[in-house]
What does this fold into?
Amino acid sequence: MADVITSGATVITPTLILGYESTRAPGTIVHDIIGRANPDVTLRPAGTRTGRMELGFIGEADSYAAETALSTAAVFTLTSTDRPTVALSFIVKEGGTITRTLDDETRNAWTVAFDWREVTA
It folds into this structure.
């Protein structure tokens, strides 16, 4: 299995990660000073990653199980043998959404998309 999401005994194994987006907000603060050309700068590291992920499934049952699992209050861990840089521990982001969609053409492929925020496990 190339991509696996786990939380305790819960295991989500998508057929494929269809989409992955991550963003980091910079921590740097710029203080403009009246009458001075150069601002004061406070350097801080960027925050944790946030983003949106889209998981592809063949079959209704696996997509529903993933939607249900992601709806629980839990910390999840994504591991990927194909894409090691996407590995992270995350929660479903406050104010985000979890969406499950049936593919119109195949009528058997499903997408589960959700907003996430990186956390330390």
The chain has one domain: 3-23+49-118. Residues 60-70 form the longest helix (11 residues). Residues 34 and 104 are 58 Å apart (CA to CA).
